[in-house]
Amino acid sequence: MLKNGNKQKESQLGMKLCQARTLLHRKLIFSLIEKSDQNLCFKCSRPMTENNYSIEHRDEWLYADDPVKAYFNMDNIAFSHRKCNKGNRGRGSKSKTTKFKGIYINNARNRKNIWQAYVYCKGKRHFAGSYATDVEAAIAYDKLAVQLHGDKYLTNAKMKLLP
Ligand SMILES: [Zn+2]
Q: What pTM was estimated for this model as a whole?
C-alpha cells in the first residue's frame, strides 16, 4: 500500500521521491539565502541563483583542531557559486589554484596582486592583503591568523605547506 502510494507520488512528480526531496531542500535553502540577504557569492560578490549556489565552509574543516565542530559550525558556513567554491576548484576548472589555506584568487582584470588572504574569526572576515604570489599571501595569512586565533591555530606553516 505504502509502496503504491510512493509510486503514485513519483509518477505525479515525474521524479523519484528522494530526488524531489533533495530539490525541495535546495530550493528551500536558496529561498532562505535570499530572504536573509546572503545571495551574493562570498567569493566573487556577484549574485547567485537557485541553480548555481553552493554551501561551503569559510575555514577548512578538514584537519581543523576540531573537525566536527568546524564542519557543523553555522558561523563557518558561507554561500558561493559552485564554480567559486574552493572545494570544487581544480576539478576541471581552468582558473589558477593554490594549496594554501585562507588564500583566494581575485581574477579581476589588470590586477597585479591577485592572491588575497582572508582570515575568518568569529564569523567575521579579516583581510590580510593582496599579493603577487600565493606564497606571500599564505605568509600574511599565517601572521594574521595567529594574531586572531592564537599561536595554536593551524597555519600554512604548521601544515608544512610553506616552502
Ligand atoms: Zn562567485
A: 0.51
Reported as a single tens digit per residue, the pLDDT across 140-155 is: 999 999 999 999 898 9
Over range 118-123, report the average pLDDT.
Answer: 85
Which domain does 134 fall in, by range? 96-163
- CA–centroid distance, 141 to ligand 1, in Å, is 21
Q: Alpha carbon 84 to chain centroid distance?
A: 8
135 alpha carbon – ligand 1 mean position (Å): 23
Q: Report CA(81)–ligand 1 centroid distance (Å).
A: 4
Go through the chain and tell me how many residues it has: 163
CATH number at residue 142: 3.30.730.10
Residues within 5 Å of ion ligand 1, judged at the Cβ atom:
41, 43-44, 81, 84
| pLDDT value of residue 62 | 80
